[in-house]
Each structure stands twice: as C-alpha cells, then as structure tokens.
Design goal:
This protein is an alpha/beta fold. Helix content is 43%, strand content 18%. It contains 6 helices and 5 strands; from the N terminus they run βαβαβαβαβαα. It binds adenosine-5'-diphosphate (ADP). Adenosine-5'-diphosphate binds next to α1 and β4.
Length: 158
Amino acid sequence: AIYPGSFDPVTHGHLDIASRASRLFDKVVVGVYDLPAKHLLFDTEERISLFTKAVENLKLTNVTVTPYNGLTVAFARQIGAQVIVRGLRMASDFEHEFEMALMNKKIAPGVELVCLMASLEFQFLSSSLLKEVCQLKGNISSLVPPHVEVALREKFNI
Ligand code: ADP
C-alpha cells in the first residue's frame, strides 16, 4: 500500500494512520508529494527526514518513506502498490477524498482506496493548524513527536 500526502510536517495523526496501515498491509510506502499546490514550510527532503525518523522511533519496520511527483496512481503502479491509504477526519475530508477516489478509479481501475477513520484524539489535528498554533507560541507537544517540535521551533525561531 502507499500512504500519500504532503506531510508538512508529519503529525501524530499521520503516524496513527501509518502504524495502523502497517498492521493491515505487508508493506507500506509513505509517498511524500514533492510539489503540492499549497504553501510549504518544509522542503521535500526535510519532510522525508522528519517522517523517516518518526517511523524509525516507532519501529515500523515495514514502512518506508519516499518522495514522488506526478499522479498518485502512477506512483502506485510504478512501485507495484495495489492500495492507496488515506486518513479521514470527520466531515472535512470526505468530499475531497470521495472526489479524488472516483477520479483515480476512472484513470486507474486496478488501484483500490482504503480510508482509515482518524482516531478520536487526532480528529481536529491538521498540519496547517499545527503550524499556526506553533507560530503563535502555543503548546504542540502532544500533537507531534519531539524531533518535529524542534524542527518547527527552528523554522519559526522560537
Ligand atoms: P494532503 O495534502 O494529501 O491532504 P496531508 O499531509 O494533509 O496531505 O494529509 C495526508 C493524509 O493524512 C490525508 O489522507 C489526510 O486526510 C490524512 N490526515 C491528515 N491529518 C490527519 C489526522 N489528524 N488523522 C488522520 N489522518 C490525517
């Protein structure tokens, strides 16, 4: 399976999905999207390194982290993945994921989408809100691993 996203930066919500996926699939490849259509705080190398360190700390031995660009389904095909994993938070993610899933099905019928429901404690957590709270000097220690908190503080000079 592949678990694609921007991961700018990785949060406990993403790690929850990655570790649950690692129990469902033989191998999980986290695909860090190179150039998403949003403003990024961390470059691709930084986003990969933050996610990789988190995966190592959690000892998720069947999870690897790699960059990709272009179509997610093309990336799935390229590495022989049959499943795309995504996390779903409350109502906010559903419409967007459903739209993407239908389009992906049209262009790559062989690739299946599996959505895992976000855990209750991470339902409200997004990378964008996290960055905003951190920049405004809020406490984010329960939302990200310690090394991600350090990286965020460095970016914001706090
Ligand atoms: P994208 O730009 O592809 O939405 P994100 O890094 O924002 O990338 O999210 C990657 C995936 O992780 C998406 O499927 C998203 O819904 C999911 N996700 C994000 N935050 C959480 C969370 N707190 N709990 C569960 N899943 C999440």
